[in-house]
Amino acid sequence: MCMSRLQKVILTLCMLFTLAAPMTSVLADESTDQSSDTAAPKVDASVELPKMQVILDKIKGQVSSASDESQLAQLNDMAVELGENASTLSQNLVPQSQQIDTQLAVLGPAPEAGSGVKETADVTSQRRHLLAQKSRLDDQIKQANALQKGASVLSSQILNYRRDRLKNQVSLNTGSVLAAKFWQPLYNNPVDGPKIITFAQDLKQSVQLSFSPGYGLGTTLWFSAAILVMVIGRRYMEEFLAWVSINKLSEGRLRRSFLACAIAITTLLAITLCCNFLALAFSRHPDVADDVRDLVSSLGIQSLLAGLIAGLGRAFLSTRRPSWRLPVINDELAKALKPFPIVIATLVFIFQGLEAFNRAIETNVNTTIFGNGLTAILIGLLCLLMVTRTRRIRRKLDIAGHEVERSRIAGLVDIALILTGITILICLVIGYVGLARYLSYEVIWVGILLSTFYFLNALAIDGCQVLFSTDSGPGKLVTRSLNLNKKTLLQLGSLFSGLLKSALIILLILLLMNGTISSSSPAEILSRIVDFFAGRGLEKLNLIPSHVVMALVTLIAGIYVLRSVRNWLDNDFLPQTSMDAGMRVSLVTLFSNIGFVLVLLMTLSAIGVQWNKLAWIVSALSVGIGFGLQEIVKNFISGLILLTERPVKVGDLVTISGIEGDIRRINVRATEILLTDKSTVIVPNSQFISQNVRNATMGNAQGVVTIPLTFPLDIDPVQVKNILLAAFNDNEKILDNPAPSVSFKDLSAQGILLSVTGNVNSQRLISATRSELLFEVLVRLRTANVALSSPQTMVIEQKALEQAQSIEQP
């Protein structure tokens, strides 16, 4: 490049960062271009180098604030051109430095002091001037080389930044896969073509070095070890663990869950060790290129994901041992799905390796987009192919008359795969390659997590059942060591299984929220979980599609976890304790209310809402409370008071505002009371706090059965007393202590009023016991010819009738 061209480029770069620069300055530069054909004046490096440094600093500043892909591409081109100009300037300064070296050689070295040789003042002055000029040129060459290196590093950083933006910004439209631009890297790639050729040469050299003298035997041994581990080691380790499962574990589901986890782990170890042995075989030579070494190291890490996918798939299908298959899957269907885990693992390994390759040789963004799009195309088609093959096998089995059990979860998985595959292909057609790539990796990542959770959850539950079973060896050991009874041992088993399941669910949610298959290593996923707990991921509201998806996943998973733990508490753990039914219901309701609030907060966190900046929500709630939510809030607070203080609880017999019935449920806003006619009355919770409430069963209060009876004045009171006491004493529901009693209540013209009283165990027995005693008392009184006192009206009518009969008689 000529020196006048260098001046023009530098001036143009300066104008790009000067907003007030007039367009006429560009026309002024054209005049210098016209004279460039005749002369190439030298550039003053002392002036141009500071300008170039300023431009480099401005490019760095613009990169951090650039939000458009075109801006980043332009900044990258400017950095590349600036590096080329710095390199050209350095090359032009080198001849000048060499010329000065020649002149200094002609002048010769300065005479030594005391040698008696003297030179003229002109020679001394010229030598001093040349040395100063030489020193200045060397500094300028170093500065130009530093600028060239800095521009190259900046260009690489811009490329990596653009590549990361393609992963994270799924809303970026990069062009349809049907366009010719997408497929251009295959047939016209002038930028990355030389890089790929160079890398291929480095790779070929690495293979040659691995078989060089002193390394050939080691390479052969490592290669043989990889094959032995993959073929023989995996098989015999799996057989050994199967023998342990059959002969050393107790009978039951623990054998199947243990063997399924063993298959997954042995496959994972075999594939990981095989890939790392191959990496050691071909990259241990010290002269291996750095880009090849980085790629091989990255592939060793990615083999973990590939091994996990293959291991989980083999454990799920278990085609070699159908009777040991943990999930309920038809044998024909399992055989039809057998190739898919290996295919998915291979695709993930290849495409993750392709991304590592792009990063290692710093390929162009277009090549990265092509790789991401190709990944999404194959994974999207694979999702649709899996569902199509599965339905074809099911249809074939239905025609043959075989009943195929299909759970609701299997149907949901099919629907999810169909929707995901169609969405991926649509995104690729309309140009959202980043979103398609995100969905492709996310569906695989979610599948890995759910499958791992399924096996670990089964292993935890089955293990607790065996460990805390009174029939198993470990259970008997625990019983003898801790001196526990059967009920306590069952409670411990239920408690530990619930804790393990809850821990697994929480870990699953955190991985779904903070991890992704595109992470470079498991350490990065772990750091994201730590950042989540530290709150650093909730510092700002950033509504991007991935956050919205994570918020939906958090909400659905949180509600599912809440319901699962609630059912576990309500059905498994609390019934084995000594708590009464009302206390159990209160604890479950209180847990549900607190859990729902936590799930809501986690959902807001996942979507990007900051917990420390929710003043607008508090303000909105305060306004709503002031205008009409005060009753709802009052009932909500009253419900919390009822659940904590428990003046009334589920199962109590209460009377409020003339309503008497059993409390069936205490909700957040109101309480349900079941009446004797099986109808339900809904009472706001605030009424239980502000009104008088009669709790007939509070403190296990006994019931009192009282029957008042009126007898004529001519009866024998002692005889009647004995009859009444005998009727009460003979009834099984009447308690002996306190004993039944008869009270003389009143003596009037109507007769003698006696009241007989007896106690029962519960207030709920009063009505039924009273009815039985009334029947029994009436029968015994008639047997003893004891009549009850007749009402006054009946007595008057009887006397009038006797008088009428006496008048009619002659």
TrEMBL record:
Keyword match Cell membrane: yes
Domain of life: Bacteria
Pfam family, one: DUF3772
Domain Mechanosensitive ion channel transmembrane helices 2/3: 589-630
Cellular localization per UniProt: Cell membrane
Signal peptide region: 1-28
Protein family according to the UniProt entry: Belongs to the MscS (TC 1.A.23) family.
Record-given protein name: Small-conductance mechanosensitive channel
Organism (species): Rosenbergiella nectarea
